[in-house]
Amino acid sequence: TLVAVITNEPGLQPVLPQVVLARYSQHAVPPIWLQHLYHDSSFPFEFWHGTAGGMTVELFMRWCTRIRSVIHSFNNDAWIVLILDCHSVHLDIRSVTHLSRLGIIPVFVPGKLTWLLQALDVYVFAELRANIRRREATERLQAANGLPVRGSWVEHVTRAVRSIIVNRDWSAELEKVGAGLDHGTLRSASRDY
């Protein structure tokens, strides 16, 4: 699971942690060769272990604390407005209380409207999936046996995330979904809705 984050502050985007929740049981440790691949992925990627690949309230709170730490290192006076879907983890009272303690303002996109109002859903994820699939297909076509190299998914994912999420200014797209100050640039689909 990728816990991706984008911002309307172009200078901050390259330093925001892009977290991968590795699919290992709570007490399992990834093999050494895979740990090396994770390490070689470098900044801003973080691979969190013991997650079983899914988001929990505890992981969400840890992620929010991490995001706040990075943002306040960049700009201690920054207001953090976190746009979230209505996943039960986000709406859990422990999560909402933690966000309040951190001074993070949550904005919840109503259920079944993320396709319209959540910038990651509108602009990022389809392009990201297509880019990863293209990288995987190219690797298979170039392999003599048609099989991917063990662990190559790490490079495919990190390269795609780096090019599509990390090294891009998302301020215009956030404006288009209504997550900005200028509603004159709102997407026609959002304006019509």
Give the helices and strands as they follow along the chain. EEHEHEHHEHHHHH
Helix content: 40-55%
Residue runs with pLDDT of under 50 for 5 or more positions: none
- Arithmetic mean pLDDT: 92
Radius of gyration computed on alpha carbons: 18 Å
SS element count, helices: 9
Global structural class? mainly alpha
| Largest sheet entry | 3 strands, mixed
Task: Identify the notable features of this structure and list them briefly.
50% helix; 193 residues; mainly alpha; single chain; 3-stranded mixed sheet
Task: Provide an overview of this structure.
With 193 residues, the protein is mainly α. It has helices spanning 32-41, 57-74, 88-91, 93-102, 114-117, 119-142, 152-166, 171-176, 188-192, and strands at 2-3, 18-21, 45-48, 80-84, 104-108. Strands 1-2-3 form a three-stranded mixed β-sheet, with helices on one face. α2 runs parallel beside α4 (93-102) and α6 packs antiparallel against α7. It is globular. The two termini are 30 Å apart.
Q: Topology of this structure?
A:
Elements: E1 2-3, E2 18-21, H1 32-41, E3 45-48, H2 57-74, E4 80-84, H3 88-91, H4 93-102, E5 104-108, H5 114-117, H6 119-142, H7 152-166, H8 171-176, H9 188-192
Parallel strand pairs: 2-3, 4-5
Antiparallel strand pairs: 1-2
Helix pairs in contact: 2-4, 6-7
